[in-house]
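cron nightly-structures :: item 1 of 1
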Amino acid sequence: MINASLTELRAALDARKISSVELTQLFLQRIERLNPTINAFITVDPVHALANAREADARIGRGEAGPLTGIPLAHKDLFCTQGMLTTCGSKMLANFVSPYDAHVVSQLKGAGAVLLGKTNMDEFAMGSSNESSHFGPVANPWDLRRVPGGSSGGSAAAVAARMVPIATGTDTGGSVRQPASLTGITGIKPTYGVVSRYGMVAYASSLDQGGALAASASDCAALLNAMAGFDPRDSTSLERPAEDYCRDIGASAATGKPLAGLRIGLPTEFFGPGMADDVRTAIDSALDTYRALGAHTVEVSLPNAQLAIPAYYVIAPAEASSNLSRFDGVRYGHRASNYRDLDDMYRKSRAEGFGSEVKRRILVGTYVLSHGYYDAYYLQAQKLRRLIAEDFRRAFGTCDVIAGPTSPTTAWSIGEKSDDPVQMYLSDIYTIAVNLAGLPGLSHPCGFGDGQLPVGLQLIGDYFSEARLLGTAHHFQQATDWHTRRPEIAA
């Protein structure tokens, strides 16, 4: 059962071949066995998980089950969860128990999914390797000496190691897609505003978006169906008709050429220097598969994509410096034990509560927003953001989806880039532009590089084209078996 798809799990639950309680116990046992090695979970709650599983079994017995009823799930630890720790991977919130549920949490609770626990992450979602967590780094299940990517690395590692079938993540600059690539699973970041940010602790409000992580595109589609939807409590939530993200997941690739007529754009900027040779080989082979499925490739250009990283690392820290100002030791979160006055309490609480990467981004953000530098940095970065979005608009005039690598390399060793923040930032070079433009993006496994480490291919769509991206990836996965490969530890 640990390697079953959501469709298979749904059928087994409905046929009473296994109960939700038994399924939940199975995954809780795997977490107990594997988490000391992988460190994917910060919090595990077996008591409430089993209680929810019993409720799910009752719903199934009454014939009231939906697609996710009784399915075990994990949330990234920045989704507020009532009565459970929500730490954001930080000492600042190490003892914070949320008094309410995030919209995503309540949606999935209503769908009958069984929450097993909260997953490890880079502190306040600031990082690309899951090494900045106060609770220690997460190990990549394919090679425990390597990173799983970040900031949703705990969720990605948990799914890759089959400690849970599905998990939520968030994506500010690639934090769902990049860890999905490095751990050999599928991850999707929808169009900005499709998933409510209510109760999702903010890093960079104009970029953050909740996303789905699972073994396959079809599983991600089922999870996204439950996550998405308008929420009046979030001013950036989009009020639009509900969609079925499974609608383009249909006939298998054995029935002719299911992607006939699909135009896949290949940006020249994504295929230049900087991509590792082993990644290039896997990507080229995957594109050949897409052509065999009936798609044809066209060259497109995203001339301002090279400016995405400098624009992002002005905008995101600027917004972070504002969002994280609420953590002052007064109302909740860590408070220094010894201080002279209010100012001293602020300084000491933040110095003790925040890690080095968070402090670095707060300082950068405060600087670029300060008097005399706002126009020179922040305003210019916002102009670049518009140019990047315009590049995508023009490209989608000649193609239906854009494809390329998700990450320039496979997973690197833990500690390898810790002392060089710029090299760490460059690991998101192919994903950040998607967030700046607010577009949907998906990463799916497409092969292996040196050392049998997973490689992910990224698909980027126009606004609200999530169903097309998921259907496109699904047809690729019907014709290949990369998404079914398991790390040895997941056996």
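cron nightly-structures :: done
DSSP finds 15 helices and eleven strands in the chain.
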